[in-house]
Please model this.
Amino acid sequence: MPLTPVLTKRFGTNQPWKIDNYEALDGYAGLRKALTLQPDEIIAMVKDSNLRGRGGAGFPTGLKWQFIPQNDGKPHYVVINADEGEPGTCRDLPIMMNDPHSMIEGIIIACYAVRAQNAFVYIRGEAIHAIRRVTGAVREAYAKGYLGTNVLGSGLDFDITVHSGAGAYICGEETALLDSLEGRRGQPRLKPPFPATNGLYDAPTVVNNVGTLASVPYIVLGGADWFKAMGPEGSPGTSIYSLSGRIANPGQYEAPMGTTLRELIAMAGGMSRGKELKFWTPGGSSTPMFTKEHLDVPLDFDAVVKAGSINGTSAVMIFDEDDNVVRAVLKWTQFYEHESCGKCTPCREGTFWLAQILERIVDGHGTVEDIDTLLDACDNINGRAFCALGDGATSPISSSIKYFRDDYLALIPGAGRPAALVGATA
Ligand SMILES: Cc1cc2nc3c(=O)[nH]c(=O)nc-3n(C[C@H](O)[C@H](O)[C@H](O)COP(=O)(O)O)c2cc1C
Ligand code: SF4
Model:
C-alpha cells in the first residue's frame, strides 16, 4: 500500500502555511467552486462522498450538516474541534502547523453549506505554536478577502475566531467543548438535544474535527467519486495514521483508509529495535488494544470494530516484546483518572480505583483477586458513565487482561512467572 498524500500533499513544500504558497497549490480553489453551487448541493456532495468524521466516532459528515435546521431564524455556528488530547494522537497539529489554510478553507465551505456566518476554532491551550500559526493564517485569509464581509463578491460574510482551551482532555468531547467555549467549566452536556439543534449559545451548531474539515476542499474540487475511489466503500478517503513507539521512523503516514498495521510498519521502516511486535492501539489509548494477531486488520471504521476495537483517531502506538503491558496500561489509566471531569460517579470514582489497583499490582503488592476486581470495576463503568471518557478508560484494562493475563500474574507475588520474563522496561 503506497503513501497517498492528500491532506499532507503540501507538507514539505516551501512554507506551505503561507497563503501565497497555499494558493499556488490549488489553495482556495475549492471555496471558489463551492460558491458557484447551492449550499444544499455541497451538503449532498459531502454526503455522497461518505466522508466520516475524523475526530474518533466516524459519524457521516454530510448527514451531520443536513441535521442543521434551515429557516429557523437562529444564527448557526461551525465549531472546529482542535483539542487533540487522545494519547498518541498527532494528526490535527501537523495539519494546523503545515497547512492551516486547508482547514480554514474547509471551515468557510462548511459555513456556507450550513448557512453559518461565525466559526470558532477551539485549540488546546498547550499548543501555543498551533494557536499562533492558525491565528496568522486567519489574518492572511481576512487580508485576501476569503474572510470578512462580502467574501469573493458573494454578498456573504464569514468570520473565524481562534479560541485557546486550557488543556483538558474532556474539552475534546463536543458538548464539554461548547460549554468551555461559552466560558463555563468544560463538562459534557446531556444528549439529546444534540449540538445540531441546541449547540453553541443554544443555536444549531456543527462540531467537526480539523481533519474532517480539511478534507472538504479536496472533495469539492475532486468530486465525491474521486474521494470514494480511495479506501473501502464504508470508510472512504485517506487517513493520517500517526505512528509512535517502537517503530523505526515514527511520524504521520497518510494512506487510504483500510491500510493494515503490517503495511504501515513496512512504510515506517520496520520495528525500531528489530524486536517482535507485542501489542498496539489502532486509534489511541481509549481504543481496545490489538496484538500481532491483528497485523492484517484493515484500519477503517468498520473493520476495526469487527475485530473488537475502534478506529478512533488512527493513533497507532506500537510496543514490542520487551515492553510491559501492565505498566503501559497503568500510565494510560493515570491519565484518565487525572482527566476525569468528575461529573458522574462511575468515572470519577472508578478511574481512581482502577489506578489504585494497577499501582498496587505494578508495585508488586497485587493479588490474583485484583484482576477480577479490575474487570468488575470496568464492567461497572462501561456503559454507565455519562460520556465516552469513562468507557474509553476501561478499554486498555479489559483488552490487556483479555490478551495478556499472564503479564498481570507475573507481577503478582506467587502467582506466575518472574516479571523479568515479560519485560519491565516500558
Ligand atoms: C473524552 C473525549 C475526547 C474527545 N476529544 C476529541 C478531540 O480532541 N478532537 C476531536 O475532533 N474529537 C474529539 N472527541 C470526539 C468529539 O466529541 C466529536 O465526536 C468530534 O469532534 C466530531 O467531529 P467529527 O464528526 O468531524 O469527527 C472526543 C470525545 C470524547 C468523548
Ligand atoms: S464519564 Fe468521566 S469525563 Fe465523562 S462526564 Fe463522567 S466523570 Fe466526566
Remarks:
- The beta strands are 77-82, 118-123, 159-164, 205-209, 238-245, 251-256, 277-281, 290-291, 315-320.
- The chain has a mean pLDDT of 96.
- DSSP finds 17 helices and nine strands in the chain.
